[in-house]
Amino acid sequence: MLDRDGFRPNVGIVLLNQKNQVFWGKRIRTHSWQFPQGGIDRGETPEQAMFRELHEEVGLQPEHVAIVARTRDWLRYEVPDRYIRRDARGHYKGQKQIWFLLQLTGFDWHLNLRATEHPEFDAWRWNDYWVPLDAVVDFKRGVYEMALTELSRYLPRHDARPRVSNSGFRGPASQEVHAPDADPAETQGTERSPGP
Question: 20 to 30 A from 146, CA-CA: which of 42, 98, 128, 138?
Answer without folding.
Answer: 42
